[in-house]
Amino acid sequence: MARERALERCDQIRFRWRRQYNLPPTDPRYLEMTVGEMLEDLLCHQFLDHPETRATMITDDFDEELARLEAEAARDPASPADGGTDIPDDFIDPVV
């Protein structure tokens, strides 16, 4: 169960943004950001680090895709406030 949840979340914008800045899930900066703002910030880093992606990542349907992502995030709100990173009951610490 934990593995499946981790695989599902690892590509989510919220998780990537929080990881970019090494923020805890309770940080007000994380909690106050919208998915659109997070995506914009992540894209700025992508374009700065990899300028060749500027022409290929922004397509004609970019705004539609962003709206879809924001709607998806609104339908599946992060719960609890940590964005769903609470430790499940079946969690096994890999470091023994």
Q: Briefly, what is this?
A:
With 96 residues, this protein is mainly α. Helix content is 56%, strand content 0%.
Written account of the structure:
- The protein is an all-alpha fold.
- Helices cover 56% and strands 0% of the residues.
- The protein contains six helices and no strands.
- Helix 2 packs across helix 4.
- The two termini are 20 Å apart.
- The model has no long low-confidence stretch (mean pLDDT 76).
Order of helices and strands: HHHHHH
Helix content: 55-70%
Count every helix, treating DSSP H or I runs of 4 or more residues as helices. Answer: 6
The biggest beta sheet is recorded as: none
Shape category: globular
Structural class: mainly alpha
Report how far the terminal alpha carbons are from each other.
20 Å
- Unreliable sequence segments: none
User: Would you tell me the overall average pLDDT?
Assistant: 76
Instruction: Report the strand count.
Output: 0
Strand content: under 5%
